[in-house]
Amino acid sequence: MKVPPHMLDEIVNALGEVFAGRRYADRVIEFTFKRHRKWGSRDRRLFAESIYECVRWWRWFWHLAGLPDAAHANTDEITPETCAKVWSAYWLSHGRELPRDDEHEPLLTAAEVQKRSKQKVSDALRASIPDWMDARCSAELGASWPALREAMNEPAEVFLRVNTLKADRRAVREKMAEYGFEAEAVENVPSALRLVQRQNVFSTPAFKEGLFEVQDAASQLIAPFLEVAPGMKVIDACAGGGGKALHAAALMRNKGKIHALDVHAWKLAELKKRAARAGVDIIETREIEGSKTIKRLAAHADRVLLDVPCSGLGVLRRNPDTKWKLSVEEVNRLQGLQAEILENYSRMVKPGGKLVYATCSILPGENEHQVQKFLLRHAGEWELEAELRRSPLDGGFDGFYAARLVKITRAVEPAPLAEAEPMKLAA
Question: Could you read off the pLDDT of 299-321 as tens digits, one per residue?
Answer without folding.
Answer: 999 999 999 999 999 999 999 99
